[in-house]
UniProtKB/TrEMBL annotation:
It is found in: Membrane. The keyword Membrane applies. The chain crosses the membrane at residues 12-34. The keyword Transmembrane applies. It comes from the Eukaryota. InterPro entries: NDR1-like. GO terms for cellular component: plasma membrane; plasmodesma. Keywords: Membrane, Transmembrane, Transmembrane helix. It comes from Acacia crassicarpa (northern wattle). This is Protein NDR1-like. One of its GO terms (biological process) is defense response to other organism.
């Protein structure tokens, strides 16, 4: 054994656990910095012509909506599998009933890009007649589920499940009442809350988010 080899061995022995934990810290930090963040998904527009009170077009059972996908990552592209939507109506504050489903074809999205895509659902006949009023409003439920792969330089990650849902109130013209985009979040408050949104559901959403992240990454 040469003297330099010996020195290295001695240095390594001295370093022991200390260097190990420094290494772990560095690796964890790099992972935290480079870890891609999940895309965000919103309902940007929503219309149910059958609920337009000033028209008599009750035979139009289509529900049409515009979905926005945001990739906020600086250097990471996203490949989406087919995105499956299910739409339901609220019968009362506690109960939803499914009315139909649709799919947006899978697509690739570059870093820092957003994409808007239309899709529509053909509601089963009479499905909209069952809609109840919650605090005087009609509500829909939209859920989606898909998988995404993150592309860093040329390498794709494994698939990660990506899903969410939201409640959508519509006005007397059959349009989304809320002006802002509605986030299809990771939580499923399938009860229409009266008054202000409650903290626990978003907190739970956050918790679920982190549990999922730690499972999948
Ligand atoms: C809807 O139907 C009512 C009664 O049949 C009629 O008076 C009204 O003009 C119709 N409205 C439209 C926009 O066609
Ligand atoms: C609702 O129906 C009226 C009468 O047919 C039409 O003028 C109006 O554009 C419709 N509103 C929407 C949002 O489609
Ligand atoms: C949306 O997802 C929630 C939670 O899994 C479920 O209770 C609800 O029935 C779903 N609604 C539709 C329309 O798929
Ligand atoms: C919703 O559920 C709650 C608790 O389970 C119940 O007290 C309430 O009567 C239900 N409301 C409706 C409209 O069914
Ligand atoms: C979406 O729907 C298609 C066909 O119904 C199915 O093959 C696919 O597994 C679904 N994807 C997800 C993520 O649920």
């Amino acid at each position: 054994m040469g003297s330099t080899d010996k020195q290295q061995v001695e240095a390594a022995a001295k370093c022991g656990g200390g260097c190990g934990s420094v290494l772990v810290t560095i690796v964890v930090t790099i992972w935290l910095v480079l870890r891609p963040s999940e895309p965000k998904c919103y309902i940007a527009a929503f219309m149910a012509p059958a609920l337009n009170k000033t028209s008599n077009a009750t035979t139009n059972s289509a529900i049409v909506f515009l979905v926005e996908f945001d990739n906020e990552n600086d250097n990471v592209g996203i490949q989406y599998d087919n995105v499956n939507f299910t739409v339901g109506v609220f019968l009362d504050r506690n109960t939803t009933s499914p009315v139909g489903s649709s799919t947006i074809d899978g697509f690739y999205q570059g870093h820092k890009k957003n994409a808007q895509k239309w899709t529509s659902v053909e509601a089963h006949s009479g499905a909209l007649n069952k809609m109840g009023k919650v605090d005087g409003k009609m509500y829909f439920r939209v859920n989606f589920t898909t998988s995404v792969k993150y592309k860093t330089v040329t390498i794709y990650s494994k698939r990660h499940r990506f899903w969410g849902g939201a409640n959508i109130a519509v006005n007397d013209a059959g349009l989304k009442e809320e002006n802002d985009n509605i986030r299809l979040g990771h939580y499923f408050p399938v009860i229409v809350q009266s008054g202000a949104p409650l903290l626990p559901s978003s907190f739970l959403g956050l918790l679920v988010h982190f549990v999922l992240l730690s499972l999948f990454l």
